């Protein structure tokens, strides 16, 4: 359940970042209408001048096909920029998640193993396995020893999962 909440939060952050970039005019999405400033809407002369400037920037001897290919190349570079932004945000979220797991592992490793085992016992098993995998072997084994006395099946599952998730 916690992972669904984390995933939902990440989606909200990514969508919010993309929306912020879109509304600030930094990024343009080809599937959304372009943002027009109030100056462009109030003064048709400016829009007309801008369109004539754009037409002078393109060589006159280029065919319509070449011009549309240039436009497609520009939009693909924008799409690549969007992908880079999303990838960077995802990497940052992953780094933050790893730091959180490392902090939780440090806190639990500084606790008495019996108290830490009680906390681990109440956690989601996948989260507990990830946290234990960030601890050194001695600390994790002490906690798993304590957990074995109360719930040996969970301790076995955690041990198996720790091998699969080993340190992030």
Walk me through this protein's architecture.
- This protein has 168 residues and is mainly alpha-helical.
- It is 80% helix and 0% strand.
- The protein has helices at residues 2-24, 38-42, 44-57, 64-109, 113-121, 125-133, 137-150, 152-165.
- Helix 1 (2-24) runs antiparallel to helix 4.
- The protein is rod-shaped, with a radius of gyration of 27 Å.
- The chain starts with a helix and ends with a helix.
- Residues 67-84 have a biased composition (Low complexity).
Sequence of secondary-structure elements: HHHHHHHH
Largest sheet: none
How many DSSP-defined strands?
0
Question: What structural category characterises the helix and strand content?
Answer: mainly alpha
What percentage of the residues does DSSP assign to strands (E)? under 5%
Q: What Rg do the Cα atoms give?
A: 27 Å
The gross shape turns out to be rod-shaped
Which regions contain 5 or more consecutive residues with pLDDT less than 50? 37-58
**Distance, first to last CA:** 19 Å
Determine the fraction of residues in helical runs and give it as a percent range.
Answer: over 70%
Nearest-integer average pLDDT = 78
Count of runs of 4 or more consecutive helical residues = 8
């Amino acid at each position: 359940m916690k992972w669904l909440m984390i995933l939902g939060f990440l989606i909200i952050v990514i969508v919010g970042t993309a929306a912020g970039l879109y509304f600030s005019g930094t990024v343009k999405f080809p599937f959304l209408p372009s943002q027009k400033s109030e100056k462009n809407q109030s003064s048709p002369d400016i829009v007309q001048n801008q369109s004539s400037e754009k037409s002078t920037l393109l060589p006159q001897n280029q065919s319509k096909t070449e011009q549309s290919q240039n436009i497609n190349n520009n939009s693909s570079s924008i799409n690549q920029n969007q992908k880079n932004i999303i990838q960077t945000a995802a990497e940052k979220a992953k780094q933050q998640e790893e730091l959180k797991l490392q902090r939780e592992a440090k806190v639990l490793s500084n606790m008495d193993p019996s108290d830490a085992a009680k906390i681990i016992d109440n956690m989601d098993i996948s989260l507990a396995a990830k946290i234990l995998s960030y601890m050194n072997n001695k600390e994790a084994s002490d906690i798993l020893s304590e957990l074995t006395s109360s719930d040996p099946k969970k301790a076995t599952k955690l041990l198996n999962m720790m091998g699969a998730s080993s340190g992030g």
